[in-house]
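ARCHIVE CARD
CATEGORY: sequence design from structure
SOURCE FIELD: tokenized fold
FIELD CONTENT:
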């Protein structure tokens, strides 16, 4: 009889302890049915294709993460946490195209960190709402293409270079000579066309007259407070504010859960890639 009583007591205690542990576990783990905001980190220099998880962030990676957030029915809105100095025009354009497509399904809010300039502002503009800190570095609207002429160095070192090419422009940008006048004009046209596309995107996305955007697009950077005054961002605030706003736009009742679609890169500050490594950057 006594043994049976101990057995019953043990079973009851086991059930109670299991219930307590289960409660604590499920309280600490977000419910799969909880409505969430998906957070995507965009950190580093943007390029088309795949990034390296350190210095470069690839358009294909960001697009994949946006797609995952769209496919997750528990995610009702998306926050892009941006810390980037910019990148290539094509890389930014691929991300912009996906953002415009995605926002038809779920609202997208941008939270700018230390820097969201040039191409990083390009991808911010089509979002539904933009937060920045007062001293966030943003703007830098424009395009740059850089070529290095080392011909004098090669001459001094006695290095002779023989070039056999199929067309006049095939070695354009090679560091053993300067650009010809015709090549310079050709590159200027490429840069101007890319910049004009950038300006038009901002005008359309932010509702700012085209001529006003052109006045802002001389390449200068703007502090977050200045950017707000110019209509480039919507409000001062941090990522927590962005998540709250995304929850509101996604019609989430109460405090939204958070699902991180990718981890931030393991750096305390962004290492800016030397721009001479890229033909054209924005």
């Amino acid at each position: 009889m006594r043994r049976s009583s101990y057995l019953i007591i043990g079973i009851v205690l086991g059930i109670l302890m299991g219930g307590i542990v289960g409660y604590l576990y499920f309280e600490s783990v977000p419910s799969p049915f909880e409505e969430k905001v998906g957070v995507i980190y965009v950190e580093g220099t943007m390029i088309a294709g795949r990034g390296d998880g350190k210095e470069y962030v690839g358009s294909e990676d960001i697009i994949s993460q946006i797609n995952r957030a769209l496919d997750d029915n528990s995610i009702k809105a998306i926050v892009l946490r941006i810390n980037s100095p910019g990148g290539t025009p094509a890389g930014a354009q691929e991300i912009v195209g996906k953002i415009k497509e995605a926002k038809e399904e779920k609202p997208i809010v941008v939270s700018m960190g230390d820097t969201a300039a040039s191409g990083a502002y390009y991808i911010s503009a089509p979002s539904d709402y933009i937060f920045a800190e007062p001293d966030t570095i943003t703007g830098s609207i424009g395009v740059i293409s850089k070529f290095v002429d080392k011909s004098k160095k090669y001459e001094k070192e006695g290095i002779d270079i023989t070039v056999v090419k199929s067309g006049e422009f095939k070695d354009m940008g090679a560091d053993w000579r300067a650009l010809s006048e015709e090549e310079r004009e050709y590159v200027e046209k490429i840069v101007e066309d890319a910049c004009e596309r950038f300006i038009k995107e901002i005008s359309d996305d932010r509702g700012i007259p085209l001529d006003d955007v052109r006045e802002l697009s001389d390449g200068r950077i703007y502090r977050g407070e200045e950017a707000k005054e110019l209509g480039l961002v919507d409000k001062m605030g941090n990522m927590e504010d962005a998540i709250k706003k995304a929850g509101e736009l996604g019609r989430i009742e109460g405090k939204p859960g958070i699902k991180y679609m990718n981890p931030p890169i393991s750096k305390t500050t962004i290492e800016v890639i030397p721009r001479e490594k890229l033909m054209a950057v924005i």
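CARD ANNOTATION: The longest strand covers residues 75-84. The longest helix spans residues 2-28.
SHELF: design records, drawer C
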